[in-house]
């Protein structure tokens, strides 16, 4: 291999003559021989000599095994063929035995059906016919060509026809006599006779007759009942649908058990068609007698709306009742007619709502509510709205309820809210107080409406209705804003001047005091008592006229303005430490007075002023580090610049001490 690898590669293109070609060929042959010898040497080193005698033994055994397997396979094929023949013979024997049994059954059925018919045992006769109908006549005739077979077949065919006629006649007779047990007895037999459709059709004829009798008797009596004149159509629909539901409850288990659940929908369609026919007749009579398009007076509209609501609710209940039994039932004609009626209902409800609200404002009066005066029209309007919304929900129609609630919200915004806003231009304290109370009363009523209808089951089951009810939040927000505007107007007209006067008293008092002045102020304060007396006159006059909520709002607004004006006044005055201490006393007195007027907290509005008084009363500026220093846990409202500015109001604090003060 070493020699071979060292041989130069021949350049074939350089060989030009025959001698050169022969020489090159000889060299290659020599090299090939050397390589072959090297390969042989390597094979001898790596592959041991194999014993070929063992291979001969294996070969002999393999031939023997193959011979045995061929013999076994041939035997197996033979056995398999015989087994198949035996199986086929067995199948033919079984089929033959079944046919023999069928012939025997046919004979027994022929004999049994005659006896059963003679004894009027129709259940037994029907079972014989059911067995007969399960047999294949063509196969039986191939097996038995005797006259006995034909005679049996003839007897059974005649019995089949006779039994169909008898069962149908007996069912119709029982239906006419209103014998429910007998009707059900014969209704069960039709499937055994192979007459499923005939049975359903016959029973549905019974249902049709039953509903017609109800219309002629109970419904007619309801329509003639003048005592319940305003709800007579609702009563009539209720009677009809309850009867139909009762028939369905009777029909459902019978159909499922004897006809198969797949035929229940067909049966319900028969019932629904008959029910629709009578219900649509009633609704047409309702529309004609109630004259929906000619109603003008709210007193005429109100009972009609109540009756439509009841009609819709009853139809909805019945539709759900049917839907639970057949989810894929198509929408009934009754449901479609109710949808059309709901459109008329929404229009009538809007008219009644608008007219009733108008009358409520015309009949307006006032009444006292916890010493505050309130207009009666506010509660009257919300009574109307609550009645309309409640009635719309009782229709069980999401479409109607959404439309009515939207109309109610629109009326609140465009009618009541705007009516209240008009009085904002008044300068009369009594009028402003009255309409502030009216607005507060409106807020309370909106809250009640929202709370009531949020908990309503119909609303909870509908995401759309829930969203519409939440629109009352917008109305509540608008009424709250208007309430604040009324209170702000009262503050501007009545209280603001008193606050300005009280601040003027403060500005006219010196706050650079000595010990004697401080003692005198403790006994006879020259500012606080006058300020309280001045403002108290205004507050007391309003407290008698305003509701508690409105008065609290007014006090809150007044406290806010008072604190702002007082802060400005403080920043324009000069103090010493004793003057700052007196300011702290004054603030405590004022806060005690203002807090006594309201249930709301107002201390947060005076937090900055109290901290200003603290800055003005410290003995040493370094004390402030405990309040507004970097390590202080005190909630401090004043910035470092505010603190320095306030300290500059102190005549007894040096400028260099203020400049040297290190605050957080």
From TrEMBL:
Subcellular location field: Golgi apparatus membrane
Annotated ranges, domain COG4 transport protein middle alpha-helical bundle: 156-425
Membrane topology recorded in Swiss-Prot or TrEMBL: Peripheral membrane protein
Lineage: superkingdom: Eukaryota
InterPro entries assigned: COG4 (IPR048682), COG4_C (IPR048684), COG4_M (IPR013167), COG4_N (IPR048680)
Alphabetical UniProt keywords: Golgi apparatus, Membrane, Protein transport, Transport
Entry GO terms, CC: Golgi membrane
Major localization class: Golgi
Pfam family, one: COG4_N
Gene3D superfamilies: 1.20.58.1970
GO biological process, one term: protein transport
Family listed: Belongs to the COG4 family.
Protein name in the entry: Conserved oligomeric Golgi complex subunit 4
Species of the source: Dimorphilus gyrociliatus
């Amino acid at each position: 291999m070493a020699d071979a690898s060292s041989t130069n590669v021949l350049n074939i293109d350089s060989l030009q003559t025959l001698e050169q070609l022969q020489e090159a060929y000889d060299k290659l042959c020599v090299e090939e021989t050397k390589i072959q010898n090297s390969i042989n040497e390597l094979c001898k080193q790596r592959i041991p000599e194999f014993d070929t005698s063992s291979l001969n033994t294996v070969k002999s055994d393999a031939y023997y095994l193959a011979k045995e397997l061929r013999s076994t396979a041939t035997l197996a094929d033979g056995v398999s063929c015989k087994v198949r023949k035996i199986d086929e013979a067995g199948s033919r024997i079984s089929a033959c035995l079944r046919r023999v049994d069928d012939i025997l059954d046919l004979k027994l059925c022929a004999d049994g059906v005659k006896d059963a018919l003679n004894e009027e045992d129709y259940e037994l006769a029907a079972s014989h016919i059911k067995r007969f109908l399960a047999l294949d006549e063509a196969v039986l005739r191939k097996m038995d060509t005797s006259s006995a077979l034909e005679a049996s077949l003839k007897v059974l065919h005649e019995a089949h026809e006779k039994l169909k006629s008898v069962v149908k006649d007996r069912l119709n007779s029982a239906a006419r006599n209103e014998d429910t047990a007998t009707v059900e007895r014969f209704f069960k037999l039709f499937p055994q006779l192979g007459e499923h459709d005939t049975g359903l059709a016959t029973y549905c004829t019974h249902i049709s007759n039953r509903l017609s009798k109800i219309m002629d008797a109970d419904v007619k009596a309801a329509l003639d009942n003048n005592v319940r004149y305003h709800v007579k159509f609702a009563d009539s629909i209720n009677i009809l649908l309850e009867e139909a539901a009762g028939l369905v409850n009777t029909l459902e288990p019978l159909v499922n058990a004897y006809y198969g659940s797949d035929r229940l929908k067909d049966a319900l369609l028969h019932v629904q068609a008959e029910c629709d026919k009578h219900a649509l007749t009633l609704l047409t009579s309702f529309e004609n007698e109630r004259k929906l398009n000619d109603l003008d007076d709210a007193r005429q509209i109100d009972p009609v709306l109540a009756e439509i609501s009841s009609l819709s609710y009853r139809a909805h209940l019945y539709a759900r009742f049917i839907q639970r039994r057949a989810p894929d039932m198509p929408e009934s004609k009754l449901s479609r007619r109710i949808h059309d009626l709901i459109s008329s209902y929404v229009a009538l409800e809007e008219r009644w709502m608008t007219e009733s609200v108008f009358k409520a404002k015309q009949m307006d009066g006032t009444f006292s509510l916890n010493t505050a005066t309130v207009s009666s029209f506010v509660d009257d309007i919300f009574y109307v709205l609550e009645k309309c919304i409640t009635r719309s929900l009782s229709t069980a129609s999401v479409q109607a309820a959404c439309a009515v609630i939207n109309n109610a919200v629109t009326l609140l915004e465009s009618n009541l809210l705007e009516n209240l806003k008009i009085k904002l231009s008044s300068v009369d304290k009594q009028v402003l107080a009255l309409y502030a109370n009216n607005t507060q009363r409106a807020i309370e009523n909106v809250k009640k409406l929202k709370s009531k209808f949020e908990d309503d089951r119909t609303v909870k089951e509908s995401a759309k209705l829930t969203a519409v009810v939440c629109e009352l939040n917008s109305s509540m927000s608008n009424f709250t804003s208007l309430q604040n505007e009324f209170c702000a107007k009262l503050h501007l007209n009545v209280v603001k001047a008193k606050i300005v006067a009280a601040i003027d008293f403060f500005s006219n008092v010196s706050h650079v005091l000595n010990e004697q002045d401080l003692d005198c102020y403790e006994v006879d304060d020259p500012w606080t008592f006058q300020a309280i007396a001045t403002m108290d006159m205004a507050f007391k006059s309003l407290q008698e006229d305003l509701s508690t909520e409105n008065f609290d709002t007014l006090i809150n607004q007044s406290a806010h303005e008072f604190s702002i004006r007082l802060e400005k006044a403080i920043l324009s005055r000069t103090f010493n430490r004793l003057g700052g201490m007196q300011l702290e006393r004054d603030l405590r007195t004022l806060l005690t007075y203002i807090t006594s007027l309201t249930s709301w907290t107002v201390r947060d509005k005076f937090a900055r002023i109290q901290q200003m008084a603290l800055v003005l009363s410290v003995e040493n500026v370094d004390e402030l580090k405990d309040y507004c220093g970097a390590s202080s846990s005190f909630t401090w409202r004043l910035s470092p610049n505010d603190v320095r500015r306030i300290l500059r109001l102190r005549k007894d604090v040096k400028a260099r001490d203020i400049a040297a003060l290190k605050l957080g």
